[in-house]
Amino acid sequence: MSDIIQLLPDHVANQIAAGEVVQRPASVVKELLENAIDADAEKIELIIRNAGKNLIQLVDNGIGMSETDARMAFERHATSKIRSTEDIFKISTKGFRGEALASIAAIAQVDLKTKQKNSPAGTNIYIEGGNFQFQEPVQTLEGSNFSVKNLFYNVPARRKFLKKDNVEYRHIIDEFQRVALAHEHIEFDFFHNDEPVFRLRKGSRLQRIIDIFGQKLRPLLVPIKEDIGWIKVSGFVGKPEAAKKTRGEQFLFVNGRFFKSAYFNKALQEAFEGLIFAEYSPSFFLFLEIDPEKIDVNIHPQKTEVKFEDDHLIFALLRSSVKKSLGVYNVAPSLDFNRDPAMDSFFKPNKNPEKQHFKMPEIVVDRTFNPFEEETKRAEIQNLAEMYHQNISAEPSKINLFEDEDFDEDLMRLPNGYWIFNQENKTLMLDLGRMHRLVVSEREKTKKRSNASNSLLFSLEYHLNETEKNKYRSIKKYLPNLGFEMNTVHDNVLRIEAIPEGLKETKVMKFLEELFEILEYKTEEDFLRYYEQQWNRHQTKSRFDFIYKTDAEQVIKDFAALGFPEFLPDGKRCFYEIPLDDLKNKF
Fold first, then answer.
1. Per CATH, the architecture of 10-200 is what?
2. What kind of architecture, by CATH, is found in domain 339-450+501-587?
């Protein structure tokens, strides 16, 4: 039997190795940016076309390379950062494995022009698909100029699996932001299809965050600073009102390197316990400084995961330092979302404690009781629906409360926003917010919404960050037909002159912010579908919005016209029947 094991040809081995380093255009962007930083660049220019599929060009004013170093840089495992095994465990640079440029050159057409300071001439190298084409002297600026063209041109199967341009562009934005945030002392320019995306000047860390994410974030940031000797923590966290349902502005860095950690994210989430809803995530930009020997950055091909020697201590430090700063900057340590704001005055401490008297109530009410938190599980709800062979949202309640138009009811609002509803022998606790949501949803199904505008007496101004500015460009052609009248002024300011009829002026900013949260929509239909979802959501009220009895009565009537369904389509309960016999047993 003949031997069947053989060595792979170099070009095949390089293409396979490239798959570990170069997964998409953003991978190339990351590697080139990090190389420029390691080369002590003070100014970096990134130019991409077609989301990096056709061109990724990076120009820096770093130290450049000699003729020999430029050629060696494209060899596998060639690196200037590692000399011994011990060096692996005290890495302070971004790149160190010596595989990035070899991997990039294996699946693209790469042109490099580089020149060292005081050298009479630079050198130009051109490589196609890992095959060296030529090297020659060239007149060029000090530093390096990399052009990576036609990514995966020689691996069509890999190129076919790249996502659409809008998705790949989003990944490039992510990588660029991660690098730019950690190096506020470096000037960055970023262009996509000849359009400027970011122009970032040198400045403070706070200014860099604002330059990337916009001025509206400035008043929402709380500084963090902690130094316990072996580790330093600094940066900013967003106030509770900056929290989002999407995990957007969450950045952790160690020694200037971005990393991901579900474990440390949990520490930040715990620090905000009681301040934000469980389904929301806090915003943070936190920078750790620690001895390189206490971390291992060599456990992931993309170097986005880091192993820490004392991760449990860092967890505790992150949680406590964030809690401390939130307290110092008067962010309440605990918020009761069920508390009636009108009751706040009763809980303010007296300036003269000696004259402050409290009388303990004789009856203690459990204000945390919330039957909606113990809703029937989705599976149980579905089983119930199957029993009656009906759709959950359409299934009418067996509570026939509104046989006559003039019903005799008894309504009472609770401090937590729910309403108690009594009629005959039924006592219900109502979530009017959920009931209103279903009423609005059904109403929108039966009518076509008008796209008429309401002109504003005073225009509104929305400050766009660079990412939102590009998003606005992609959707602005749809906005006039939806009832918006707006235009950009002062480069990054969106001036709003008219808004759709039915959209409250107080909700305009939040409405636009949520539209811009989705960076790219695949099609016009995708955008319009998401727009309608947000529109419907902004037309509904929460249970806290219902204060007056007349408003509550109207929602109950409208809800009754739908058959008084017990559940929303997503399985959430609209009302909860309070068994009177159970109440009797409490006494």
1. 2-Layer Sandwich (3.30)
2. 2-Layer Sandwich (3.30)
Closest by Cα among 276, 267, 286 to 244: 276
Q: Higher-confidence residue: 540 or 203?
A: 203
Spatial separation of the C-alpha atoms in residues 556 and 397, rounded to whole Å: 13
pLDDT band of 570, cuts 50, 70, 90:
confident
d(CA 246, CA 238): 14
The rounded Cα 240 to chain-centroid distance in angstroms is 15
Q: Could you tell me if 508 and 460 are in contact, meaning their C-beta atoms sit under 8 angstroms apart?
A: yes
pTM of the predicted structure, to 2 decimals: 0.66
Cα(471)–Cα(479) distance, rounded to whole angstroms? 12
Cα(429)–Cα(571) distance, rounded to whole angstroms? 17
Q: Helix H segments across 64-186?
A: 67-72, 100-106, 156-160, 165-182
**Taking the alpha carbons of 497, 500, 505, 509 in that order, is the dihedral positive or negative?**
negative
Identical fold for domains 10-200 and 208-328, yes or no, is: no
Contact 299, 305 (CB under 8 A): yes
Q: Which residue, among 96, 100, 122, has the nearest Cα to 110 in the 3D structure?
A: 100
**Other Cβ atoms within 10 Å of 333 Cβ, number:** 10
Residue type, 263: Y
Could you write out the DSSP letters of every residue in 488-536? EETTTEEEEEEEETT--GGGHHHHHHHHHHS---SSHHHHHHHHHHHHH
Is residue 62 within 8 A of residue 36, CB to CB? The reply is: yes
Contact 268/249 with Cβ under 8 angstroms?
no
* Cα(199)–Cα(159) distance, integer angstroms: 30
pLDDT digits (tens, 9 = 90+) for 436-493: 888 887 776 665 556 678 899 889 988 887 778 777 887 888 888 888 999 888 767 8
Domain boundaries, the chain: 10-200, 208-328, 339-450+501-587
CA 566 → CA 363, 377, 400, 428, distances in Å? 32, 14, 12, 11
Contact 565, 393 (CB under 8 A): yes
CB count in 10 Å sphere of residue 424: 11
Cα of first residue to Cα of last residue in the chain, in angstroms, is 89
Kindly report, residue by residue over 371-383, the tens digit of the pLDDT.
Answer: 565 554 444 444 4
Both tokens assigned to 332? 């309440």
CATH code of 208-328, in short, is 3.30.230.10
Please give the radius of gyration of the chain, using alpha carbons only, rounded to the nearest integer. Answer: 30
> Hey, is 281 helix, strand or coil?
strand
